Amino acid sequence: MTQFYSVIDWSRPWLASILPAAENILAQEDWRVALNQAARSAGLLNHRDLPLQFIPQEDLPDGVAYESHISAAGKVPTRENLHDFFNALVWLSFPQIKRQLNALQAAQIETLGIGKSRGPARDAATIFDENAALLVLENSERGHRLLNCLREHQWQQAFIEHRDDFATVAQVWSFGHALMEKLVQPYKGITAHAWVVWVSPEFFKQDVSLQATQLDRQVSTQLQSHTLTTADYTPLPVLGVPGWWTGQDQEFYADEKVFRIKFRIKRTHPVHI
Fold first, then answer.
1. Any bridge partners for residue 135, and if so which?
2. What InterPro entries does this protein map onto (predicted)?
3. Number of compact structural domains in the chain
């Protein structure tokens, strides 16, 4: 039987962050049962130390907010679609980050309620949850130089001149489940909200499972000690990441519809009369 997730190309580099979790689920017949087995085997808990479960969307009680239900009951409403499937795989891959994000979002809902506006903290947490990529950088001159190029939108320098840095002092890990969903049918303009993670040179010598464990722990600690705002992110056109797409030459990066020039506010001097 063809499953809804059969359209996913698991060889894509942007799915490497969740591939180990996915392989276990894809090997079994019932994806929802497999998700819950994996969660139990890993001993996953929410921020209230309740066992994590993936439940059908219709089991979410009427009038209860999605994030509040995860917080209060440890139950993640999960529809049979790519968006929620990727979300579940991120829970299995980065459980500490996800539980901290849920704690932040649930606390904001409890304080401010559900309204037309999420408020700045919850908005920033939602952006992280849905569209973040972890930009992992060596805490060195090379790492800081690359970050400066990205923040200044110096795309040619970042992706062509410093291309080799992405194999030695930099990595990009997909995190946001909406970002992954968009990348099922990739197009050049897809842009992530990059969250910077500084690491030592030893990080890049570890195997992938140890790297993932370190990132999960390190980023969740960052989120506990930092008040999130939308200013925390830097835009990252993900198909510009070296090796993530074909034809990445100078003409590719010269497309200003995607690789935009940084907008700067012009400051004017006051006129004295």
1. 172, 196
2. DUF3025
3. 2
